[in-house]
Amino acid sequence: RLAHTVHRGGRAGTGRAGPGKVSVEVLEHLEHLALVDFRDSEGVERLQKAIQFADQLHEVNTDGVEPMDSVLEDRWCLYLREDDVTEGNCTKELLENARETVEEYFVAPPVNLLSGGESKPLSHS
């Protein structure tokens, strides 16, 4: 795997390494998705601990364990109700107000972008 070598206060190069390491590209993608700044040691340490915890799952022996679709799959019914429209029924009119739609869904702009297109990290105070 490509690894991200982290130094206190910043980022360094990439190279091959074992479990718990992340490529620079993946790290930047995670920053964008999670709105967390991994340029400081606290953010990087939090990410490394999460990866180490997740890596433990690779050591679990799942031989003979059938995959599950749901943790509730032993129930014969998941208690889903019909989605009945009781008033309104104005989907077409509502979607006409949207700037962008896909099928019958609104497309929302990314909330983690500033007007210049750069990521805005959350502060954890």
TrEMBL record:
<keyword id="KW-0436">Ligase</keyword>
<dbReference type="InterPro" id="IPR036113">
    <property type="entry name" value="Asp/Glu-ADT_sf_sub_c"/>
</dbReference>
<dbReference type="Pfam" id="PF02686">
    <property type="entry name" value="GatC"/>
</dbReference>
<dbReference type="GO" id="GO:0005739">
    <property type="term" value="C:mitochondrion"/>
</dbReference>
<comment type="subunit">
    <text>Subunit of the heterotrimeric GatCAB amidotransferase (AdT) complex, composed of A (QRSL1), B (GATB) and C (GATC) subunits.</text>
</comment>
<dbReference type="GO" id="GO:0050567">
    <property type="term" value="F:glutaminyl-tRNA synthase (glutamine-hydrolyzing) activity"/>
</dbReference>
<keyword id="KW-0496">Mitochondrion</keyword>
<comment type="similarity">
    <text>Belongs to the GatC family.</text>
</comment>
<keyword id="KW-0067">ATP-binding</keyword>
<dbReference type="GO" id="GO:0070681">
    <property type="term" value="P:glutaminyl-tRNAGln biosynthesis via transamidation"/>
</dbReference>
<dbReference type="GO" id="GO:0032543">
    <property type="term" value="P:mitochondrial translation"/>
</dbReference>
<dbReference type="GO" id="GO:0005524">
    <property type="term" value="F:ATP binding"/>
</dbReference>
<dbReference type="InterPro" id="IPR003837">
    <property type="entry name" value="GatC"/>
</dbReference>
<dbReference type="GO" id="GO:0006450">
    <property type="term" value="P:regulation of translational fidelity"/>
</dbReference>
<keyword id="KW-0648">Protein biosynthesis</keyword>
<dbReference type="GO" id="GO:0030956">
    <property type="term" value="C:glutamyl-tRNA(Gln) amidotransferase complex"/>
</dbReference>
<comment type="function">
    <text>Allows the formation of correctly charged Gln-tRNA(Gln) through the transamidation of misacylated Glu-tRNA(Gln) in the mitochondria. The reaction takes place in the presence of glutamine and ATP through an activated gamma-phospho-Glu-tRNA(Gln).</text>
</comment>
<keyword id="KW-0547">Nucleotide-binding</keyword>
<protein>
    <recommendedName>
        <fullName>Glutamyl-tRNA(Gln) amidotransferase subunit C, mitochondrial</fullName>
        <ecNumber>6.3.5.-</ecNumber>
    </recommendedName>
</protein>
